[in-house]
């Protein structure tokens, strides 16, 4: 994920130099390096990722609200969608930023509380066990957890194309969540006490929720707050994209993009309440690994080695030349292919 972020930054800065302006989007980069086909793949992957994750967020948040408020699932899903969707539609940028700040503060408090409360009953021997056959199936979710590449163009613009600063920001910026994820995984996986229990438990969180009365509410609060802030970001991103796709006047807050953003995920989440993990898996495999796996390497390949590329060749942020780019595209392609074969075998 660090490699593909650096590749996007490299292509973005080259595109900025060629066009003579900042604020270059992923679509503009794909159009310049990969042509119409690249734009189509980028756009549809972007839409797919956003819809799949919005479905997952609605499904999970409605489950949490139903357990907390004791209301039917359809009511909690509708309540979550329209409250947070209403914040995005009616709220000013300052208000949305304030709400998001409160949610992030709550995430920090609940995450710290969760680690402190759950680490008191860790089984360190459980962390020494491994199931390497599960690795391929885990990669899409891992990739999805570390998605940040959509903000790389903004980062490049804010840092005025300074490649050294961009590289440092990406490497250090991803190291911080990596540390948090490792702590989170250590606490959750360390809660499995025996191998027999590990074979029976599909989600270790469920064990914590059922065996630790203190940890359960904290997990629910942490999950809901994390979903809330992510939901706001994805609603704003997809509604802006759809407004541009529909050629609506810029600067006007029209209801149609928000209706198209909020209603389909709500309906699909209600049709299949167990869709959370399936939506995450599909978003990671067919969305993230295409848009932020294959496409960045393909854009960099075209930018570096295409005879039609006329931009000034800046220093490469990712070493290894064609070998590295081939490995990135090949690895993402193999995971996608294995997922397709896995789904086909279960039909």
From TrEMBL:
Pfam families: Trp_Tyr_perm. It is a multi-pass membrane protein. It comes from the Eukaryota. This is Tryptophan/tyrosine permease. The chain crosses the membrane at residues 34-59, 71-91, 98-117, 137-157, 169-192, 218-243, 283-302, 323-341. It comes from Populus deltoides (Eastern poplar). One of its GO terms (biological process) is amino acid transmembrane transport. GO terms for cellular component: plasma membrane. It is found in: Cell inner membrane. InterPro entries: Amino_acid_transport_2. Keywords: Cell inner membrane, Cell membrane, Membrane, Transmembrane, Transmembrane helix, Transport. The keyword Lipoprotein does not apply. Its main location: membrane.
């Amino acid at each position: 994920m660090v490699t593909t972020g650096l590749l996007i930054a490299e292509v973005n800065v080259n595109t900025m130099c060629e066009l003579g302006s900042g604020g270059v989007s992923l679509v503009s980069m794909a159009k310049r390096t990969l042509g119409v086909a690249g734009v189509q793949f980028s756009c549809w992957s972007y839409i797919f990722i956003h819809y799949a994750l919005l479905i997952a967020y609605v499904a999970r948040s409605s489950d949490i609200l139903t357990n907390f408020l004791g209301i039917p699932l359809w009511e909690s899903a509708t309540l979550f969608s329209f409250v947070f969707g209403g914040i995005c539609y009616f709220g000013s940028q300052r208000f949305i930023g304030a709400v998001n700040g409160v949610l992030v503060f709550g995430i920090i408090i609940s995450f710290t509380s969760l680690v402190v409360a759950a680490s008191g009953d860790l089984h360190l021997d459980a962390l020494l066990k491994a199931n390497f056959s599960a690795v391929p199936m885990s990669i899409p979710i891992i990739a999805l957890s570390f998605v940040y590449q959509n903000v790389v163009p903004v980062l490049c613009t804010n840092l005025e194309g300074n490649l050294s600063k961009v590289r440092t920001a990406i490497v250090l910026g991803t190291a911080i969540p990596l540390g948090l994820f490792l702590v989170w995984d250590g606490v959750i996986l360390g809660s499995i006490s025996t191998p027999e229990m590990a074979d029976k438990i599909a989600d270790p969180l469920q064990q914590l929720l059922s065996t630790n009365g203190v940890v359960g509410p904290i997990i629910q609060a942490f999950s809901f707050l994390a979903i809330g802030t992510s939901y706001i970001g994805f609603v704003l991103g997809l509604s802006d994209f759809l407004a541009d796709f529909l050629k609506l006047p810029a600067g006007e807050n029209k209801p149609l993009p928000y209706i198209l953003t909020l209603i389909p995920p709500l309906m699909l989440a209600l049709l299949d309440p167990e869709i959370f993990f399936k939506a995450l898996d599909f978003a990671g495999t067919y969305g993230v690994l295409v848009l932020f796996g294959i496409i960045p390497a393909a854009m960099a390949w075209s930018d570096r080695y295409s005879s039609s590329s006329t931009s000034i060749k800046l220093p490469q942020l990712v070493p290894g030349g064609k070998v590295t780019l081939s490995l990135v595209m090949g690895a993402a392609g193999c995971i996608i292919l294995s997922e397709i074969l896995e789904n086909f075998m279960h039909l």
